[in-house]
Amino acid sequence: MKREDFDKISGSIPRTPGIYQFLNKSGTPIYIGKAKNLKSRLSSYFTIDQHRQFRTRMMVSHAREINWTVVESEADAFLLENTLIKRHLPRYNVMLKDGKSYSYICIKNERFPRVFFTRNIERDGSDYFGPYTSKWRANILLELIRDLFPLRTCNLNLSEENIKAGKYKICLEYQIGNCAGPCEGRETVESYDAKIAQIKNILRGNFGPVKKHLMEQIEFFAEQLNFEKAQELKEKMIAFEDYQAKSTVVNPRIENIDVFSVEIDEEFAFVNYIRVVRGAIINSHTEEVKLKVDLTEADILETFIPNLRDKFNSNAPEVLVSHQPGWVTEEVKITRPQRGDKKKLIDLSIKNIKFFKLHFYEQRAKFKKKPTHQDRILKTLQSDLNMDHLPRHIECFDNSTMQGSNTVASCVVFRNGKPAKSDYRHFNIKSIEGQDDFASMKEVVFRRYKRMINEGESLPDLIIIDGGKGQLSSAVESLRELGIKNQVTIIGIAKRLEEIYFPGDSIPVYINKKSESLRLIQHARNEAHRFAITFHRKKRSQRVHQTELTQIPGIGEKTSQKLLRAFKSVKNIRNAKSDELATIIGPALAKKVKKHFQKN
């Protein structure tokens, strides 16, 4: 990917936190990164910097496309980057491929619950808070909780029966003040659960009372000149302020969910899909839909929910939507959330649509085709012929005959002002004996468009007939019989003065002789004439050759063709010696050929 390629998309890149993916020509991620400011980070890859690592330069040179997904914060970007790197294992990512899971703080579902750090979530009724962007920060938070609320760290079974039986004795943790001794019944269940309730409040982000307590402690130790302890508490305060309690990728209870949102503009609908597994985004995809009929948001989702779920192989039991669709299945729960973590996911999905739209419309405006040379000519022709739309598909007909024999016709096709030679067609006149240009033109036009109608092909925008009013009237009669007269524009061009005739109008139109549009009509007419003449000559030559040679007894079409390939012409065959003929068709047939030409 080059700087000029990046400049074409840079205007639509948001200045928000998110992750970005460099994709190769096959659409596979080769590098995934996170950024606090997506635009600034991506721009840094395309600055002129000779000191950039060779690996980075190679990665950028192999990239063909950049995708990005916006999120709410840097921590969210870290988590989404983590998920995608482990999912795709991009070639140029050297970190985060170790398969580690996210960090959580667990409040165990047990009597006198333990509070501890973990990377594994067990569905046993325990409460999990996180994920955290670093184990270091999670440990600081745990230390702070243990400082404020002494808790047990042992894994003993503190059932009521065991405690009453005196199975356990207090340990060193009790002696140093880290535990209140529930193992010997020195702390009640009610007192312990009250502490757990406060810890849950802290982990959910209710920091007011805790921050107040910390500030008092920091001031106290500072006044006592115990700066080391004050600094330790200050670090814990920073950890609190940096803690992400309500992220859209924070709640591991969101186990397996698909998220769909939609927005509709005048011409396009935009649909975003987010795949969430175990509290983390593992897929984000947005696409646009050209609106051909009036559709509602519910109509769009009704189509895209099953299609995108199938595309991404999703079997999520719940689907979150921004609008209630008509799509219903007993296997999947459809939810339109109004608040909470699920509503935040919908908001994030809509946010991604807004950035996608910005990029889409900027690119559409930037790459909107400038009028080409052919477009200008077609626009002039449209104006000269007073047509409703550009004549991008033009077909021109011509007949060719000589003294009423071997009458043939041609149809040449122009697309966007240029010959489309693979679409050229020639015709043998079947229903007309002798020379009748009008009837021949009627037959050819009828056959051409009857077949196109039967095969469901699109009709041309403009039909040109090489000839004056008579040929034009015959062609129009065929169009009328087929019921398509009002669906196409048809004109005739007379050779002598280059007059343009319209059906039903005896007065011709004269286009400026220097006009590019007249030159295009003339080009089509000349091409049709050339194609017809070439075909006619071929037919006439075949007829002469075959008539002359196939009159010889024992000489059929294949033998005559063999002779013509060898000697190139009938004259050369007539002048050939018997032994020369014999080497091609054998002595018996060579004798018959020589005998025939000696008589004639």
Automatic annotation (TrEMBL):
* Record keyword DNA damage present: yes
Q: Report if keyword Cell cycle is assigned.
A: no
What GO molecular function terms would the record report? DNA binding; excinuclease ABC activity
Keywords assigned? Cytoplasm, DNA damage, DNA excision, DNA repair, Excision nuclease, SOS response
* GO-annotated biological processes: nucleotide-excision repair; SOS response
Q: Pinpoint the GIY-YIG domain residues.
A: 15-94
Q: Which domain of life is it from?
A: Bacteria
Q: SUPFAM superfamilies given for it?
A: C-terminal UvrC-binding domain of UvrB (SSF46600), GIY-YIG endonuclease (SSF82771), RuvA domain 2-like (SSF47781)
Location in or out of the cell: Cytoplasm
Checking InterPro entries in the record gives: GIY-YIG_endonuc (IPR000305), GIY-YIG_endonuc_sf (IPR035901), GIY-YIG_UvrC_Cho (IPR047296), RuvA_2-like (IPR010994), UVR_dom_sf (IPR036876), UvrABC_protein_C (IPR050066), UvrC (IPR004791), UvrC_RNase_H_dom (IPR001162)
Record's NCBIfam families?
A: uvrC
- Family membership, please give it: Belongs to the UvrC family.
The annotated subunit structure for this chain is:
Interacts with UvrB in an incision complex.
Which protein, by its recorded name, is this?
UvrABC system protein C
Which organism does this record belong to?
A: Membranihabitans marinus
